[in-house]
Design brief:
By secondary structure, the chain is α/β, with parallel strands linked by helices. The protein has one domain: SPOUT methyltransferase, trefoil knot domain (Alpha/beta knot, 3-Layer(aba) Sandwich), CATH 3.40.1280. The chain has 6 helices and 7 strands. The chain has a 7-stranded parallel sheet with strand order 3-2-1-6-4-7-5, sandwiched between helices. It is globular.
């Protein structure tokens, strides 16, 4: 099935017919996400949170992509997005705008995401499902936060982590 065949099923709202929404000054950087399904899910959550912009880096899927369309349900029509060949390009562009860069990763120096004083604007980096945020990208971050975990695995699905962190940020900022 071609992407165009999917469009009537996944694009329920015509972007040109929608009123503008107030966007939270939250940028999302996806660092080489393997699964287009995870990326699609994150687009839907970013739309629900009215995040300002998605920065899709490296191998992260971007429209048009049938797998992305299946889980995004057209959300990429509502959330501004840009694709960058390298995550460092997205970070550099955001730095020029004065945006604080925060990585979500399990590292010894990471602070719990609930303890971090989230500045405005902020960009949050989420990494590859297997390897996490690339070390060279982690080195570019102003801060590193983590989601405390009590179980044995110490990891969580990236789309789930995305929802947890993004909603904490917008809650803290008073957007809920």
């Amino acid at each position: 099935m071609a992407l165009n065949d999917l469009e009537p099923h996944y694009r329920m709202l015509r972007p040109e017919s929608l009123q503008p929404v107030e966007r939270a000054p939250l940028h999302i950087i996806l660092d080489n996400i393997r699964s287009a399904y995870n990326t699609g899910s994150m687009f839907r959550t970013a739309d629900a949170a009215a995040a300002e912009h998605m920065h899709l880096c490296g191998m992260t899927a971007y429209p048009p992509n049938a797998k992305l369309a299946k889980t995004a349900l057209g959300a990429f029509d509502y959330v501004p997005w840009t694709h960058y060949p390298h995550t460092s390009d997205a970070v550099a562009a955001l730095r020029q705008q004065g945006v604080t860069i925060v990585a979500v990763e399990v590292t010894p120096e990471a602070v719990p995401y609930t303890d971090y004083a989230w500045p405005r604007p902020a960009a949050v980096i989420f990494g590859n499902e297997v390897t996490g945020v690339a070390p060279e990208t982690l080195a570019l971050a102003d801060a590193v936060v983590r989601i405390p975990m009590r179980g044995h695995k110490k990891t969580i699905n990236v789309a789930t982590a995305f929802g947890i962190v993004v909603y904490e940020v917008i809650r803290r900022w008073g957007y809920l």
